[in-house]
Each structure stands twice: as structure tokens, then as C-alpha cells.
Amino acid sequence: MHFPVMSGTLFLVRVRTCNSAGEMSDQALSSAETIIPFPNNGDALDKAGHAACDLVQQAAGMAEQKAQHIMGVAHKLSLQLRAAEDRLAALQAEVKQYRDRADRAEKWLHRVAIEIEHKFFASSNGRNSQAPQAPTANLKTYEPKRRQSS
Fold first, then answer.
1. Per mean pLDDT, which range of 20-29, 57-66, 93-102 is the poorest?
2. What is the DSSP letter of 11?
3. Which long-range contacts (CB under 8 A, 24 or more apart) does 121-127 make?
4. Rounded mean pLDDT of 121-135?
5. Domain ranges of the chain
6. Do residues 28 and 49 touch, judged by C-beta distance below 8 A?
7. How far is the first Cα of the chain from the last one, in angstroms, to the nearest whole number?
8. Four-residue CA torsion sign, 33, 35, 41, 43
9. How many CB atoms are closer than 10 A to CB 135?
10. Confidence (pLDDT) at 136
11. How far from 111 is each of 4, 60, 130, 132, CA to CA, in Å?
12. Is there a contact between 35 and 12 (Cβ–Cβ < 8 Å)?
């Protein structure tokens, strides 16, 4: 049996046997003679092969480190994006609350203006101050100017 020569490598021999029933089985030889040390004086091809394998392993290690770094940065940015989205949603809710409140304030100002006009100016023009109830009805249909334009 001929084994390829590889410098500094141990080789374990496995033997495939066939029993009387014709079944195949693999067995490792158990004696110390089954481990065959190869000579350490490899040629230039072996050295170049080992050097290439070492470089591939180094490149793979560096690529793994960079991938881990990139995944860490991506995770960090993902968390920051989620926090920014949550903050944006909270600010949008706050803006909606203040707009609704401003609309209510504008409606109240409109109602007060109508009441002032009705109570003070209607009686001076000779109209009965108790007659029309239009100011209250007008208040329910009143839309703030900001809402009308948008």
C-alpha cells in the first residue's frame, strides 16, 4: 500500500474487512504500527501548500472578525433606529394632542366672540338679547381655520 507523503503529519490506517456473511465493516488498526509518521523534510510544493492554507485560515479569521464587528454595529444601529422610531411616534402623538387642544381653544375663542357680539352688540342695535340661539349652534359647526386650509 502506498501513502502520499505529507510533512509532519500522522496518518491513521483504517481497514475495511468483510466477514463470512459478506458484510463490510471499517476498523481502525489498534497497534502502534498503524500510525505512520511522515518525514518532516517536505519539498517546496508542500511548503507552498501549507503557506496557502495558513493564509486562507488567516483570511477566514479576519473575515469572521469583520463579520462579527459588522453584525455588532448593525445591531447597535437597529436599536438606535427603533428608539428613534419610538420617539417619533411619541412626538407625533404629542403634536396631535396639542393640535386638538389648539382646535378646542380656537372653538372656545370663537364661542366667546359670538357671545360678546350677541350680548353686547345685538342689544345696542335694538335686538332682543335673549332671542337667537344661533351662537351655540354655530359653535358646533365651526371648524378652526387651520383645519379648513389643510
1. 20-29
2. E
3. none
4. 56
5. 1-42, 43-149
6. no
7. 91
8. positive
9. 19
10. 54
11. 101, 75, 16, 14
12. yes
Which one, of 143, 150, 148, lies nearest residue 104 by Cα?
A: 143
* CB-CB contact of 42 with 76 (8 Å): no
Rounded Cα gap, residues 98 and 105, in angstroms: 10
Half-sphere exposure of 16 (CA within 13 A, CB side): 3
Residue 11 has a pLDDT of 46
Helices of type H across 117-144 = 122-124, 134-141
17 pairs with which residues across the strands? Answer: 25
Percent of the chain with pLDDT over 90: 46
| Average pLDDT for the chain | 77
Report yes or no: 35 and 11 within 8 Å, Cβ to Cβ. Answer: yes
Task: Output the pLDDT for position 44.
Answer: 86
DSSP SS3 for 25: strand
Q: What is the mean pLDDT of residues 5-18?
A: 51
pLDDT at 21 over 50: yes
- Percentage of residues in the chain with pLDDT exceeding 70? 57
